[in-house]
Write a structure and sequence with these properties.
The protein is mostly beta strands. It folds into two domains: 313 residues, YVTN repeat-like/Quinoprotein amine dehydrogenase (Methylamine Dehydrogenase, Chain H); 69 residues, Sandwich (Immunoglobulin-like). The chain is 4% helix and 45% strand.
Length: 419
């Protein structure tokens, strides 16, 4: 009876959550599995996928084009881009695995140079960078277990000390995250989490509370005590993502994230407005993909049309997820992407600005336009199909809004303030 009531309660809560947001698919014209996404700015972003697929956007994600890059060793049978981390729009790092190595670009992904490593790397898994030539590479040695390489000035690398790492073959570091210059965590495919408090020089092995046959897919440090980890392979037994409340020293399943989808959990990101998001893939055939969100009060989740594995965020609250079959989704309407880059001198004449209740638009150069009102995060508040030049916006809360006026292919935007 208890399990039945719990199932009903969880189902009701999450069905209600499903009605509260929308994830919009962005077409990519590819069908590769997508493994990683990174936005170094609000306009420029990169996606890495299977078979060495590299996509780039320069318009905030509205459109994506494939990059024909140079300098990367591609082995027969295909190599996959597993991880991307860009320092700025041009300088970034790429992990190509499981055997291809780690690479650096300084020209926006067109040309790449292999990073030399000091360790006996057989498998590569991930990378993490604070700044250019200041970061870490994760993977595994040939029958040496998990390895972490420290990248320092000039791109030189030194091998970190891995205490109690696996001595088999194929166990590798799948993700690395740091809270600051000292405290970091790394996930292992061998079912453990490694922890450092000396800037990555030494890493201690921490059990995950699951068996060592359950791969840990990701780690995310929230603050100096709270952290989360993802995992895969529990089938119908996984009931919540892993969490630590003591800075990674001990781990347990978080019942607040439990669902009867029993998903595998992948990458977590934190938006600039402090919401947490996790990409997940349910067991069985319930749905294909799930995105979890914690808004600071509780966990909700939303079903999406394909399995999702990686996430990223830019601006205050624009969040992305990528996954199977070239699948890319974002949590705002695609036409609003990069809208935060709009200048106050946009060509639409809106007055008074700031306004209190009524805003007047000069629509003399438009022919039956559609008017959209969006909040500061780019989410649609109202769409007006009639050509109303005088808008009664008394119902809006005080704050910043964007007004878009679209007439066919022509679209103009301006920023207004209600006070």
């Amino acid at each position: 009876m208890y399990k039945t009531l719990l199932f009903i309660a969880l189902t009701f809560a999450f069905v209600y959550a499903n009605a509260q947001t929308t994830w919009y698919e962005i077409p990519t014209s590819v069908d590769n599995k997508l493994n990683t996404i990174d936005f170094p700015s609000t306009n420029v972003g990169y996606i890495g996928g299977n078979d060495s697929l590299l996509l780039k956007t320069t318009d905030g994600g509205q459109s994506w084009v494939e990059i024909d890059f140079n300098g990367v060793t591609i082995f027969g049978g295909g190599e996959h881009i597993l991880d991307l981390n860009f320092i700025d729009e041009n300088v970034g790092y790429m992990t190509v695995g499981p055997y291809g190595g780690n690479y650096k670009t300084t020209d926006g992904g067109l040309n790449w140079t292999a990073l030399s490593v000091s360790g006996n790397f057989c498998y590569v898994g991930c990378n993490f960078f604070f700044a250019e030539d200041d970061g870490f590479l994760g993977g595994a040695g040939c029958f040496e277990g998990e390895l972490v390489e420290i990248v320092s000035g000039g791109g030189a690398t030194t091998q970190a000390t891995m205490n109690d790492n696996s001595l088999g073959g194929g166990e590798y570091i799948s993700q690395i995250d740091f809270l600051n210059a000292n405290y970091g965590l790394a996930s292992s495919s061998d079912g453990r989490i490694f922890r450092t408090t000396d800037g990555g020089v030494n890493w201690d092995s921490i059990p995950s509370s699951l068996t060592d046959t359950i791969a840990i897919t990701s780690v995310k440090i929230i603050d100096d005590t709270l952290a989360f980890a993802g995992y895969e392979g529990l089938g119908n037994s996984g009931f919540g993502m892993l969490t630590s409340t003591d800075a990674g020293l001990t781990w347990a399943t978080d019942i607040n994230t439990a669902t009867f989808y029993y998903p595998d959990y992948y990458e977590m990101v934190v938006s600039n407005h402090d919401h947490w998001y996790m990409a997940a893939v349910p067991a069985g055939n319930f749905v294909l993909g799930v995105i979890f969100e914690n808004d600071g009060n509780s966990w909700n989740y939303w079903n999406v049309d394909h399995a999702v594995y990686a996430m990223d965020t830019y601006s205050d609250s624009i969040v992305w997820a990528v996954g199977d079959s070239g699948y890319v989704v974002v949590n705002v309407e695609p036409t609003t992407l990069s809208i935060n880059e709009v200048d106050n001198q946009a060509s639409i004449n809106a007055y008074p600005n700031p306004f209190q209740n009524v805003l007047i638009l000069d629509l003399t150069s438009f022919n039956n336009p559609t008017i959209s009102i969006l909040d500061a995060s780019g989410k649609l508040v109202e769409r007006i199909e009639e050509s109303e030049s005088e808008l009664n916006l008394e119902y809006l809360q005080n704050g910043i809004y964007f007004i878009t006026v679209q007439d066919g292919l022509r679209k103009e935007v301006t920023r207004v303030i209600k006070n």
